[in-house]
Amino acid sequence: MLVGLIGLAVALLCIPVWLLAIRNGTLRAERELQDRLTISLRAVESEIERFRYLPGVVGQDGRIRAHLRGSDPPGEANRYLQAVREMSGADEIYVLDTNGLTLAASNWSEPGSFVGNNYSFRPYFSQAIASGEGRYYAVGVTTGIPGYFLSERVDDAGEPIGVVVVKVDMSPLEQAWAKAGEMTGIADGSGIVFLAGNPTWRYRPLYPLSAEAGAVIAEERTYEGIDVVNRPPLASAPLPDVGATGISMEDGDLLVDAVAVEPDGWLVFSALPLHPVNEEARLVTTLAALTAMLVSAVALFLWQRRQLTRIKLEQNAVLERRVAERTRELAHEIEVRKRAETELRETHDSLIHAARLAALGRMSTAIVHEVSQPLAALDSRLAAAGLHAERNAMPEVRKNLQSGRDLLKRMKRTVTHLKTFSSRQDPVRPEPVDIAQVVEAVCDIVEPKAREAGIALDVGAMAGLPAVAGNPIRLEQVFINLMLNAIDATRAAGNDHVSIAASSKGTCVAVEIADTGAGIPEDVRERIFEPFFTTKTTGEGLGLGLSITRTIIEEYGATLSFASRQEGGGTLTTVELPVHVSKRQAEPVA
């Protein structure tokens, strides 16, 4: 609600600002137009007055008078007019008799000479005969070049004997306006623009022409060869007599002012586009609106800040009480979380140990067979040694005793691996581990299970591999779980081959276990790491093997992946273990 009121106030403020900006911009444009008109009017008058004296001076020359009386050859008058044209800068100078026939001209020797042409239809001739002088702007009927014609009658003994005409080129004014980019022009008494800074305005009506004006233009042949009557007018109505006014022209909305040039009846006008005025007004209004919005925003911010400060002060006691209560709750939660984490670690270790015992349980029959066989063989070797001792066959006695010792070493190694593997002393801190020794111990433990299942273990060469980061007991548990799964899968598929190999890959050692089982089904692949999920029959496993395996290898930054084998079928299990880096190696060299 408050924001809406502020927006309405800003909108109401913009209206007078817009009107004031338009008024100020228009006043500045009017003053500029008046300055332009003053300068343009003085330039037009100066251009005309510069040659105003010339017809009278030429008419006083004896050669011109003699030529008009017919007592002097035309050659002298023509050369004189030609010389005056060169010195004065006039466009052309020529002499007419009382019938309007050209007797001598400054261009007598040039193409398009005026000599012999009759110009009695031109107003400047009739004006000079009637009143003594005339002036008229038109397009030359002979040359097609426009100009301002100044004429003066030549009298002799009180009787007119001819008319001297000076044609003035006023195009420099037009060129100056065009170069300055001014929208200035001059219209004759009929409203035809004959000089303009904008070339598209030239020879067009300033406003719609009357039929009478069109008839006069045609009769006087003012714009010979140019159809000015049928051209579209620049404005829809005549310009006002006093003051500037805004009108719509083909160049857009313009502010136009004009001043009359007497006695020719011309209208000097100048225009300025209203677009900059509107743009300035829009900019000023926008700045005013932004300023008002900024002030309103600051005021609103201060008001809201005061309200918020009051609310905060009121709620401060409530917040402090709630913080104290929450602090006590968090302390209790932290204590509960610590106990839960401790219990979770203990449970985790128990699960790892349970998985280890489960693996031992799965191998128990094969292990018992592995130990009972050497015991029976040892009994046979000792009995044989006794018989050979009675016969005093000492070489045979020594051979049987050495065989018995080998059997004892084998049983000792097996029992040692089992005892170490079942121990619960499992430090998590990584240490350098020889992966070859881990694989050897794993193979010793799972070999009875493999032999019982009729599975051959193929162990690849592992010499020269770098030490990996981990714990030997936990890594043995990882590979025992993976080897048992490979043996079970191979046996279920009716095959008899499982291989294990290791290789160095940059900063890690990859151990690959390849079985020849049926592979991992797609519907099982996404669940194989779930705790207590198993595809074995009840009693053969807890469903914790792969879950515990992944947990162990993630503790040491290792990775575990399964892939289908391309040749021979089955599953390729890959464990990538990071190479152990000592603290000294990890420290940067100074």
Automatic annotation (TrEMBL):
Protein name: histidine kinase
GO molecular function, one term: kinase activity
Coiled coil: none
UniProt KW Transmembrane keyword: yes
Chloroplast among keywords: no
EC number: 2.7.13.3
Topological relation to the membrane, as annotated: Multi-pass membrane protein
Domain Histidine kinase: 366-581
Transmembrane intervals: 283-303
PANTHER family: C4-DICARBOXYLATE TRANSPORT SENSOR PROTEIN DCTB, SENSOR HISTIDINE KINASE
UniProt keyword list: ATP-binding, Cell membrane, Kinase, Membrane, Nucleotide-binding, Phosphoprotein, Transferase, Transmembrane, Transmembrane helix, Two-component regulatory system
